[in-house]
Specification:
heterodimer; A: 356 residues; alpha+beta; four-stranded mixed beta sheet; 11 helices; 10 strands; globular; B: 390 residues; Butyryl-Coa Dehydrogenase, subunit A, domain 1; Butyryl-CoA Dehydrogenase, subunit A, domain 3; 3 domains; four-stranded antiparallel beta sheet; 8 strands; flavin adenine dinucleotide binding (chain B); FAD (chain B); AcylCo_DH/oxidase_C (chain B); oxidoreductase activity, acting on the CH-CH group of donors (chain B); AcylCo_DH-like_C (chain B)
């Protein structure tokens, strides 16, 4: 039994944790949130440092495809560390979805053309999905109102149920309108395509399957990191805040709520590790594991972030305190890439077969 | 990080499964699938002896004491295959999993020679005397007294919740041996034979109608002086060491039992149409996810090579499975509908799922209530200030 981090994985986790803790500070995240224009919600300097200095942007992408090798376990460790700081970075759209799709489904030429720019952070990509997209001779017409970091994207991977295409942001017929987004650390944009010429990916099914799996793992791992951080910060507050002459963390009503968070977080960690391993090892139950991890970790994060506000009292409801960054990110993760109830229905179908 | 077991371990799994399935199809066919802890005790004692005869009784013990020196992974695999084969729970699980390891860790050579071979062979069935009417969650406030008289210990007092005492041969008892001592100090750990005039056992009927728990009364009950494990006053240390054994390899076998229960609920939901109800489907999915996460939580716990350090996965394990199973019992009743409210026969005896519904109310109480578990998680796990103690 080796269901534990190896020395190398431990090192990756610590490196990532130290990097984000030092650099993805609350002040920098808030500066990114307050920015206007296409870079709203992105700490560009941090993204550059992450992609080039830290060199972890290519994790989960094979070396032949220009990535750093390794697998989803390592990728999850990095996403967890970023999530713990609610870092304002285009990790989800640009790396987990777009780059993974291209690496898995693009031709050698497409990968060589596009991936270096994405992995170096010079270009940000968005991931557009429209089940009802019309595609005639690779002329695409459709829309997606919720494209993460879409306003900053220089390139889009556009997917439908029939195929996947690369589309440049300056392609004629493409319109991108930034949205005002509750989670300002991951702003969304409305992307409209009106007869835009797309360059088809060679293997659309592989591209979408890989992007979907990676997107779910990334969100689940981010949620795990965020949940743990919300708990850790609340525990620190429980030790120092004194009422009735005692630290509030000595009251059982308070302690038991925190204990309940630990119970959920431990399960969320098992879920993320299981799902990441299951994909890396090609396990039979990988699909079940992914649905479990995405839904469970997202709900855990929301529970922890909600309690972070409650257990901080009034200060937790202020803009000045970071609790709302966690709370909004948690809610956004719950909704993104399939709500919990949808994922659980997929699990139900897997275990019940066609009983219904 | 890896999900599965090695090829050698999988080969060991096949060996375990072959033998267990063979037994359940052959000589011990009649006990296959029994879930009630108190059913067919005599046959199950014979089963203990059969296990011992083939060296499957206590595989984690050293070879010289009847074990196989099995690795942690092998013990997990055996526990999984044991449950998967539908073999009923070990009637001597307290002897094998608690008394034996305690004697191995804290006993003298003479005590090892006296007890271990008979525990391993299924000839000595043990039960556990910790809780008292006044010492439940506050386990250290034990009042049962022990004193030395000549070459014997003499014990007076009362224990409660002694599972299977009525079919056991020996009981280990935590007694207060230092006059005037309080809390964890002044306690000692004694092994006592049950068949003697000074020990009386009365069954306690549970909410499901069964009676696996007992009250055990000690009135000048006696055991030889060399029945003391460790030194006088070390009782608490030994009891705590023993409770750590409880959180171990058997958890994965226990999960196979949970798997069977969930599968039965899924089958019932498919049969009666409840599986079409979207809310039931959500809850079945949650139950499935919870069970899977329990498995990977246990694997994390068992993969932690530093066993001196209790990590988060280990601290939360009890409350997680207990709460999961209590929810499962409620889900079972919602799936069954009114069919779950009536017994199949004339007696107050319940089929598996209604029994699960009733019995699982005890899961969140015994072995440390959910409330106590939350205290432990907050205090040991998060380092928050301790509860005030009187």
């Amino acid at each position: 039994m080796e269901f534990a981090l190896s020395d190398e994985q431990q090192m990756i986790a610590e490196t990532a944790r130290a990097f984000f803790a030092e650099n993805a500070t609350s002040a920098r995240t808030r500066a990114a949130m307050a920015a206007s224009g296409p870079d709203a919600g992105i700490d560009r300097a941090l993204w550059q440092a992450f992609c080039t200095e830290l060199g972890l942007s290519g994790i989960g992408i094979a070396e032949e495809a220009g990535g750093a090798g390794l697998g989803f376990v390592e990728l999850a460790l990095v996403a967890e560390a970023a999530g713990a700081q609610v870092a304002a970075l285009p990790m989800l759209g640009s790396l987990a979805l777009a780059a993974q799709a291209i690496a898995a489904g693009g031709t050698a030429a497409q990968r060589a053309d596009v991936l270096p720019g994405l992995l170096s952070g010079e270009i940000i990509a968005g991931y557009v999905h429209d089940a009802g997209l019309k595609a005639e001779d690779n002329r695409l017409t459709g829309r997606d109102a919720f494209v993460a970091h879409g306003a900053a994207a220089g390139l889009f991977v556009v997917t439908s149920n029939q195929g996947a295409w690369l589309v440049r942001a300056d392609a004629p017929g493409l319109t991108v309108i930034p949205q005002t987004t509750m989670d300002q650390t991951r702003p969304m944009a409305r992307v409209t395509l009106d007869g835009v010429v797309g360059e088809p990916l060679a293997d659309a099914a592989a591209a979408m399957a890989r992007a979907q799996a990676c997107g779910w793992i990334t969100l689940a791992a981010e949620a795990l990191g965020g949940a743990q951080a919300a708990l850790d910060r609340t525990v620190a507050y429980a030790r120092e805040r004194v009422q009735f002459g005692r630290p509030i963390g000595s009251f059982q009503a308070y302690k038991h709520r925190l204990a309940d968070l630990v119970i959920e977080i431990e399960q969320a960690r098992s879920a993320v590790w299981w799902a990441a391993c299951a994909v890396d090892e090609g396990a039979e139950d990988a699909a079940l594991a992914l649905h479990a991890a995405k839904s469970f970790a997202a709900d855990t994060y929301f529970l922890c972030a909600g309690n972070m506000i409650q257990l901080h009292g009034g200060i937790g409801f202020t803009w000045e305190h970071d609790a709302h960054l966690f709370f909004k990110r948690a809610r956004a993760i719950q909704t993104a890439l399939g709500q919990g109830s949808w994922h659980r229905e997929q699990v139900a179908t897997l275990i019940l077969g066609d009983a219904a | 990080m890896k999900l599965g077991f090695s090829p050698a371990e999988e080969q060991f799994r096949a060996e375990c499964a072959d033998w267990l399935n063979g037994q359940m199809a052959g000589e011990f066919k009649d006990i296959k699938g029994i879930t009630q802890l108190t059913a067919m005790p005599e046959r199950r004692k014979e089963w203990e002896q059969q296990l011992a005869a083939h060296r499957w009784s206590c595989i984690g013990w050293p070879e010289e004491w009847g074990g196989r020196n099995a690795t942690l992974a092998q013990q997990v695999i055996f526990a999984e295959e044991y449950a998967r084969a539908g073999v009923p729970g070990r009637i001597n699980h307290i002897g094998i999993e608690l008394a034996g390891p305690t004697i191995l860790t804290f006993g003298t050579d003479a005590q090892k020679r006296r007890f271990l071979p008979d525990i391993a062979a299924g000839k000595t069935i043990f039960c556990q005397g910790f809780s008292e009417p006044g010492a439940g969650s506050d386990l250290a406030s034990v009042r049962t007294k022990g004193r030395v008289e000549g070459d014997e210990w003499v014990v007076n007092g009362q224990k409660i919740w002694t599972s299977l005492a009525h079919i056991s041969d020996w009981i280990f008892v935590v007694t207060r041996t230092e006059e005037g001592s309080q809390g964890p100090k002044g306690l000692s750990f004694l092994m006592m034979p049950i068949d003697q005039p000074g020990i009386e056992i009365r069954p306690i009927r549970q909410i499901n109608g069964d009676a696996e728990f007992n009250e055990t009364f000690f009135t000048d009950a006696r055991c030889p002086v060399d029945s003391l494990i460790g030194a006088p006053g070390e009782g608490w240390k030994i009891a705590m060491g023993l409770l750590a054994f409880e959180r171990g390899v058997s958890t994965l076998g226990q999960q196979m039992g949970f798997r069977n229960e969930l599968d039965e609920i899924i089958a019932a939901a498919k049969a009666n149409g409840a599986a079409r109800d979207p809310l039931i489907r959500q809850r079945l999915a949650k139950a499935e996810i919870g069970l899977r996460l329990m498995r990977y939580g246990a694997l994390r716990m068992l993969s932690n090579s530093d066993h001196s350090k209790i990590d988060g996965a280990a601290l939360t394990y009890k409350i997680q499975w207990a709460s999961w199973r209590r929810n499962l019992g409620e889900l079972a009743m919602d799936v069954l509908g009114q069919a779950g409210e009536v017994a199949a026969g004339d007696h107050y005896e319940w089929d598996t799922l209604p029994n699960l519904f009733l019995f699982s109310r005890s899961d969140t109480i015994y072995g440390g209530t959910n409330q106590i578990q939350r205290n432990l998680i907050a205090e040991r796990g998060l380092g928050l200030p301790r509860e005030p103690r009187g």
